[in-house]
């Protein structure tokens, strides 16, 4: 197992992380794809550091983290870029006709995303794509309406792209919706 700046990385392989949706008994999972910038930010942000320390799975999204582990003589965590993990889980969602919600991005990005998903993953049920604005603490005036909509559809996957730190805080403060 590897630990950098107080953050422990999952020892699971890429295949094991990608296979998490097949583990029905796991329930709701918070998977963080951490990069070096996120870890550096966590050094100045105790809330972010706590979230990273308490997440079920933190995976290395960046070769810099692997280099640092190698330099410090630690086990090299599997590199799993967030986009690769999302693609793997969208393929799973497509195969099993699962539902997804996307939080983050602009309205224009959301429209493009819906078109691409309809072509590439036609059996994925895209329930909502939300364009929300969050502050540095992960707070948003739009959160209540987003959570009400999410609660109404209970998606199989929620993908959040609000920028590192913001998305982790938003997820953490709303994980019990």
Give a count of the beta strands, DSSP E runs of length 2 or more: 7
Order of helices and strands: EEHEHHEHHEHEHEH
Major beta-sheet overview: 3 strands, parallel
Gap between N and C termini = 32 Å
Contiguous low-pLDDT stretches (5 residues minimum) are none
Radius of gyration, in Å, reads: 16 Å
Identify the strand order in the major beta sheet.
6-5-7
Q: Quick check: average pLDDT?
A: 90
Shape verdict: globular
Number of H- or I-type helical stretches? 8
By helix and strand content, what is the structural category? alpha/beta
How helix-rich are the residues, as a percent range?
A: 40-55%
- Beta-strand level of the residues, as a percent range? 15-25%
In words, what does this structure look like?
The protein has 177 residues and is an alpha/beta fold. It is 45% helix and 16% strand. The chain has 8 helices and 7 strands; from the N terminus they run E-E-H-E-H-H-E-H-H-E-H-E-H-E-H. The protein has helices at residues 14-18, 36-44, 46-54, 63-71, 82-95, 107-120, 143-153, 166-174, and strands at 2-4, 7-9, 31-34, 57-60, 99-103, 125-130, 157-160. It has a 3-stranded parallel sheet with strand order 6-5-7, sandwiched between helices. A two-stranded antiparallel ribbon has the order 1-2. A hairpin with a 2-residue loop joins strand 1 (2-4) and strand 2 (7-9). It starts with a strand and ends with a helix.
């Amino acid at each position: 197992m590897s630990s950098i700046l107080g953050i422990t990385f999952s020892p699971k392989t890429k295949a094991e992380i990608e296979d998490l949706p097949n583990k029905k008994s796991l329930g709701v999972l918070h998977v963080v794809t951490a990069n070096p910038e996120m870890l550096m930010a966590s050094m100045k942000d105790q809330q972010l550091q706590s979230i990273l320390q308490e997440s079920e799975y933190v995976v290395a999204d960046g070769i810099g983290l692997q280099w640092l582990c190698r330099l410090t003589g630690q086990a090299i965590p599997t590199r799993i870029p967030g986009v690769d993990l999302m693609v793997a889980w969208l393929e799973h969602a497509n195969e099993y006709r699962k539902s997804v919600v996307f939080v983050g991005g602009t309205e224009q990005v959301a429209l493009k995303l819906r078109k691409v998903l309809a072509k590439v993953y036609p059996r994925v049920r895209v329930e909502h794509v939300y364009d929300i604005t969050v502050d540095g603490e992960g707070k948003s005036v739009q959160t209540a309406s987003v959570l009400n909509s999410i609660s109404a559809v209970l998606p199989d996957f929620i993908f959040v792209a609000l920028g590192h730190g913001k998305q982790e805080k938003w997820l953490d403060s709303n994980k019990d919706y």
